[in-house]
Specification:
This protein is an alpha+beta fold and 136 residues long. The protein is built from 5 helices and 8 strands, in the order E-E-H-H-H-H-H-E-E-E-E-E-E. The N terminus is likely disordered.
C-alpha cells in the first residue's frame, strides 16, 4: 500500500496528512446531507475533531431542521466569521489556503482538500469560489 503524505506549513505549525486522513475526509464528504445529522457545520466539526482531537460541533450546530433555521442560528451568532473566531480559528489574511483549512463559500463552511472546498453531502466548490479561509 502506498501512503501519500502531504506536509502543510501554516504559521509555523506542521501537520502531516496521510491517506487515512483523505479517506476519512472523503467518507464524511460523501455522507448524505441532512439538516439534522449531516450539515456543513457538523461536517466541518467532524473533520476538525479528526485533525485536532477537539469537539467543535456544539458551537457550529444547534437543533435546526431546515436551511432557514440553520442560517438564522448562524446569523444570531454574528455570522460564520464570529462563530469560527469564537473557537480559536484565525482568518488567513492573504491568498494562502492550506489543506485542512475551514473555508467559507457563499453561506456555507467546508474544508479545503488542496484543490477544492468540500462540503457535506458531496458538494464542492472550486478554489476560486472561496471567500475566506481559517486555520487553527
Amino acid at each position: 500500500m502506498v501512503v501519500t503524505t502531504i506536509m502543510m506549513t501554516a504559521q509555523g505549525n506542521n501537520m502531516n496528512f496521510d491517506s487515512s486522513f483523505y479517506n476519512k475526509l472523503s467518507e464524511l464528504h460523501h455522507k448524505k446531507f441532512d439538516w439534522k445529522t449531516n450539515n456543513c457545520g457538523l461536517f466541518v466539526g467532524e473533520v476538525l475533531k479528526i485533525m485536532h482531537n477537539r469537539d467543535f460541533n456544539s458551537t457550529f450546530c444547534s437543533d435546526y431542521s431546515d436551511e432557514k433555521s440553520a442560517f438564522e442560528y448562524i446569523q444570531n451568532k454574528g455570522g460564520w466569521h464570529s462563530v469560527l473566531s469564537s473557537v480559536g480559528l484565525k482568518k488567513r489574511e492573504n491568498d494562502t489556503i492550506c489543506v485542512g483549512d475551514v473555508v467559507i463559500c457563499e453561506k456555507a463552511i467546508g474544508i479545503f482538500d488542496g484543490n477544492n472546498a468540500l462540503f457535506a453531502g458531496g458538494a464542492f466548490r472550486r478554489r476560486s469560489k472561496i471567500t475566506e479561509a481559517y486555520y487553527i
